[in-house]
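Q: I'm building a small set of examples for a reading group on sequence design. Run inverse folding on the following structure and report the sequence directly after it, with nothing in between.
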């Protein structure tokens, strides 16, 4: 399973502790851990405290692979913002179409009201003609 972790502690002998912050679910969605968990790891030697890492853990919670997370996070954020932009464009187009339909409906109703007013005016004129001597 893939986790986002932060280098938490380092010892002089290359051992260190990672603080697991989030995990990637099977559907690819990242879920924050309710309570960060610590994992001992000998692969943290080259990394400074505070560095974010992507860590693959086995079922037995043993570290299989460690990779610096910075560029992966930048890629994820870029993809997320691009996807969000596409959603925004889709929403904008949907709103535009809705406003166009509403405008057309309003124009149709205005034309109906104008036609009824004209019809009422004609009836009023006929009524006056009949009532006049």
């Amino acid at each position: 399973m893939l986790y986002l972790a932060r280098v938490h502690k380092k010892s002089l002998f290359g051992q260190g502790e990672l603080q697991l912050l989030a995990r990637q679910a099977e559907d690819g969605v990242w879920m924050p851990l309710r309570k960060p968990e610590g994992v001992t790891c000998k692969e943290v030697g080259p990394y400074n405290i505070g560095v974010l890492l992507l860590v693959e853990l086995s079922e037995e919670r043993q570290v299989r692979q460690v990779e610096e997370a910075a560029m992966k996070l930048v890629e994820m954020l870029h993809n997320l913002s691009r996807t969000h932009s596409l959603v925004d464009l889709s929403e904008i187009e949907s709103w535009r179409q809705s406003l166009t339909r509403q405008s057309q409906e309003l124009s149709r109703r205005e034309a109906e009201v104008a036609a009824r007013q004209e019809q009422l005016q004609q009836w009023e004129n006929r009524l006056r003609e009949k009532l006049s001597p």
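The two ends are 98 Å apart (CA to CA).
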